[in-house]
Amino acid sequence: MDYQQKLAEKLTILNERGNGVLIRMNYIKKTCGDPKLRPSFLTDKAMESAIKYINKKFPNIDYRGNIQNLTSIQRQKSEVLSNTTSYYESFLDVIEFRDHVYELLNTIDACQCFFDITTNFDFTKNYLDLIITYTSVIITLSRIDDKKALVGMFNCAHEMTNGSSDPSYPRLGQMFLEYDHPWKKLTEEFGPHTKAVTTALLSLKMVYPRRNLPAEQWRSAQLLSLLSAPAAMLDSACCDTMACEYLSMETMERWIIIGFLLCHSSLNSNQASQELWKMGLRSGIYLTLTRDEVLNIHKVSEDLFDNIKGYSKRIADIKECREHVLVNGGAMHRERRHFLRGALKELCKVLEDEPGLLGPKALFVFMALSFSRDEILWLVRHSENMPKLKVPEDYIDNQMAELLYYMEKLRGLMRKYNNVVQRYHVQYLAQFDALVLNDTIQNMYVCPEEESVLMTSFVSTLSGLSVKQVDNKEEFDFRALRLDWLRLQAYTSVNKAPLPLKDYPDLAKVMNLTQFHTKMVDAVEEMLYETSELSIFCFYPRVFEKMFTQSSEEATMKRYLMAFPLVCSHFSQSGDPLCPEEVSVQSLRLCVTFLEQIAKQTSTVVLEICAEQRNLCDQLLPKHCAETISAARYRKQKKPMPKKGEVQKEKPGAESLRKDRTVANNMDKLHLMLTELCSCYSLCGDFVVFDHIVVPTEFLISQLETRLSEIIVRMTNYNQTTQEITRPSDLLAGIRAYVANLHSLSCYINVDVTRLVKSVLLQQTQPLDSHGGQTVTTLYTNWFLESLLRQASNSLIVHCPTLHCFMSQVTDAEQSFRAEEFSDISELQALAELIGAYGLKFLSENLMWHITSQVTELKKMVIENMDVLVQMKNNFDKPEEMVNLKKRLTGGENVLKRMTIIGVILSFRAMVQECLKDVTLSIYELASAAGLPCDIDPSLVAAIRSMQTDNTSPDEEHKLSRLLLVYIAVSLPLLALDPNSFYNREHGGHNNNIHCLARAINQLAAAMFTIQNKNIEQQLKEFLLLASSTLLQLGQNVERMEIKNRESIYLLLHMIVEESPFLSQDMLESCFPYVLLRNAYREVYKSFIVTLG
Q1: Whole domain around residue 515: which residue ranges?
Q2: Residue 280 to residues 249, 295, 317, 325: CA-CA distances in angstroms?
Q3: Neighbours of 512 (CB within 10 A)
Q4: Chain segment 690-742, per-residue pLDDT in tens
Q5: In sequence order, which ranges of 537-639 are alpha helices (DSSP H)?
Q6: Which of 151, 180, 209 lies at the terminal end of a domain, its last residue?
Q7: Name one Pfam family in it (predicted).
Q8: CA–CA separation, 497 vs 504, rounded Å?
């Protein structure tokens, strides 16, 4: 008959089911209690009266007589029914679970089962777990404030829809009433089970006191140390109570506290029960029911015993134990954590060095993990609900990162060397456990058939194992063997069993040892979950974040910070099929937050080091050597040195001179901190959090990319108000210093710095970076357009073809910058290297926009003077008519001014292009942006083509283009009136930049006539002819004002021909006497002395 009870199977199934129901009840409580998650129908104003009525009359609600109170439900009965169904069914699950628990507990009592945690461990553990789970379900259910409203609304909607109440409603209503005072009802229910529960709990008196020791005794016993007994290092770690060694303290305390609350009668009659209970009360103030739902054990116990006669002494015991916890609890657990940090560190170091010890010493790993987990869980639940204490520091641990780190390290070692563990234990099972078990069975006097079949199958299963199975990577599965052992425990633990297990302790010892060994072969992950799963942090995010912050503020803890995001990978294991919606993406958010914080700290240190190095590199720049040269000159001329009061500037390199190496400077501290932070990245390359593969180093790369981009832009020092900006060469030197030091990061951590640098610098060649921020390209484009070229268009800055740069004119006004310091070859080469071909393309597009704006205005002026220009084109060889027509022509100076601006812009663009010859792109339209010269500027062609509209015919556009050249040609003599039109032989150009007209006329004409498919050479010949004619007429004018700069203007005609790929000197000589050019050059160079050395 005992075999048919299936106690083992029922315990297993009910524990699993009960855990799901408990999680579901907790989720409903949290949902209804959180204003953000609370169901909408409970917060609906229209439902308020109905909910109040239901709560008042529950469970005897008159659904027909008081319809006026329930009209809101009547109107929305289908919605109410659908919304409350899941809650109603969840409460029905509680009834179903309770019924099955009642039945099983009564069956176990009827069988008079024997319980001893040291003998039938699994049977006893499952029994106590079921009792605690059932109690937790009822307590959590009683804490759901809206349960009556939810059930009442469902039944109301059900009756309105179907005409009758739900069949289960009366029982459900009755259960809610019974558990209004849950502890009173539960103690009544468990009265008949007192003997069995007490027996099971008292078996802990050999285990719990031995585990609940202060850190001093752990230290004196050298607990968890592999080095304490070197001679026994290779011996297998085993004992008679293997599973009890890593059994959770929290679990045992939950059994003891709740178990003796349910069956409290033994506390007055049994001294052993009383001592065990008081020891449990001294362990802490709070016990976890589930998730973040806790039980204030002293308050609950005191409230319960207050209403029971004869328990005054127990109440005094409770108060004494509570006072003991408040005074000593925090310090005791703080010392335990301190001991465990050192013990786990030693264990990790030894096992890392000799992973072969993981086989014989696997028990040490799981003990270490379990002990550490217990201390962490204790601190978490007490930190969140911290009592008022004189020493709150005992509940704050700023070294939690280290303990978590070594726990993760041990978990990682077990996974990494799982093959080693498997090989050892497969041999142990086949060559030791199977033989010992066989001898034990042979020595039994009585062995019934059912038990004999099970034990024989154990021996045959174990005997058939071999190391080859591990080498062949075969899958092992001993779950059936472990379930059979649980069945055998159930069969042999009932009263009057043919084979009573308590009479055969050797069998229990052998099988408990064998069970542990089988788990080492096929269930290491389950064991890691059982002993070190920390998903509790998912439900205490505030505590978790606080611990991270406290640890990150400690310099010595920075190397352990990666443990925090890694713990987030545990959270996905805490879900249950009965409540899949409970576990959210909160853990992923926490993980990302931690990784971003670590990355921020690391990137801050890295970039601070880079900034220091950049400052050192900056001291070596040529611009800083002036003081050194000046000092040397003073010494050479024997002039008096500066006074002593003046601080002498240190030379570069002085920071490396030290009198005492023990004195740490800022760079030493930064490098030490960087070493600590980078060490934490070595914990793991990647891990999984809720199906997301997380790579910690990618967060660092992302942070560095963002911060580096910001720093580069900040180093540019662009001030739109004062028009200040860093010289391109200085910025390039700074970036090179940063990049050189970033590459040293690869010495600390495996990151692709080259990819990072390429990504950042490539973004700087675009108008905006990946975050939409301004880049170096945008800033320098704005500065050159708004500052340098704008002043050049006003002749405050002059283009110097000879020096290949722009130079500031000497004026009385104060200048914000010197143009030659920003536009010489070295600066433009630096600019080209900074912004690259893509940046130049953007710069060119902006330049072209300004050119097209000028062309638009030029066309308007041509249209205004079209009639006059046509006549001048036709009569250019008739001087008298030309004089009259010139008087009618307006805006000649404006035309030349705008053409000069175009020439200045094109000259600047050509200078930048020359500095980009090292960069090549295969696309023709980007050839000019790549620094390759083109006879016809493709960018200018594209810009002018984009100006065309459907309103203008091609012939009309061509006419405007020809007349524009006429306009320019006939306006050239006006330049002689400007005193700044003088040709500067040193600069190789005119002081008002009119020499840029040569480039403007040639490139603009080439672009316009290319679009119109006309012969460029022919059109420019016409221009040359007309320009020559007007300039020759200038020579006939004897007025001093016009002839003052006549020779300089003649040179402009020569420059136009030299600049043009379509005109030649022969063409020029055919229409303009060369003797005039020769005389013009002699005139402007006559006072220029050439010295040959």
Answers
A1: 422-530
A2: 10, 13, 12, 11
A3: 24
A4: 888 999 999 999 999 999 999 999 999 998 888 889 999 999 999 999 999 99
A5: 541-552, 563-567, 586-619, 626-637
A6: 180
A7: Nckap1
A8: 12
